Hints:
Helices cover 50% and strands 14% of the residues. The chain has 10 helices and 7 strands. The protein has a 7-stranded parallel beta sheet, sandwiched between helices. Strand 4 (77-80), helix 4 (95-123) and strand 5 (126-131) form a beta-alpha-beta unit. Helix 3 runs parallel beside helix 4. The mean pLDDT is 94.
Amino acid sequence: xxxxxxxxxxxxxxxxxxxxELLARNGYYVFAMARRxxxxxxxxxxxxxxxxxxxxxxxxxxxxxxxxxxxxxxIDVLVNNAGFGQLGAIECVSMEAAHxxxxxxxxxxxxxxxxxxxxxRKQKSGKIINISSILGRIAIPGFGWYAASKxxxxxxxxxxxxxxxxxxxxxxxxxxGLIKTEFAAKEFELLNTVVHPSIYKKLLVGLRHxxxxxxxxxxxxxxxxxxxxxxxTPIPPVRYALPADSKTAVIxxxxxxxxxxxxxxxxxxxxxxY
Length: 274
């Protein structure tokens, strides 16, 4: 049988790393991509080939995809995972930082999708897995720009799914809730670069309350298993939401309505400005 070829972005740590390793253990030849080559080299094996790549560089992405097609002859799976979270009040996050949030989290995904789709159409097969977030369906204080980027991924995925459905290509969204990775620490590093007026002090404290459960959250392996299920199932679900908080938050938003749900979130964050 022809070996399946998978591309995983943001593979140097967390969800991307766990996904690349799990797919490799299950027979896929994985191109693991990220900017931190020192981290990627630790993954190198007979089944994993590291590639240093920035998802904002369209020319390098296209050249990389062309090389993979030339050397391997096919692309079976794309796992769009590279991203970061820009925290901060919408008023205070600079437009430059907001643009960068979309450059990586939205256009980075789109560049890869546009690059692999011609080959997948030619093969009449392929799976595109877009890692979204619990915040792809809801938005909470302090996460506005990040949530906006994940809302965009949900919309792009839904539209693309219908566009390529008859072409043998599946598009799946996986929406993690709180997962134990390096992600939260990086979010707070970026948050510290944003200047907030004193009126937002309670918001900043509230963000830390909200993320306090991260050390006890499930590890990235739970998301990697969902990716593996999606790529090996003939007709996968269109959206995976896990762990439980990702499912329950969307249901709660629908049941409670916008105002009550927003109040419940602020209460959890202990965020009452006045």
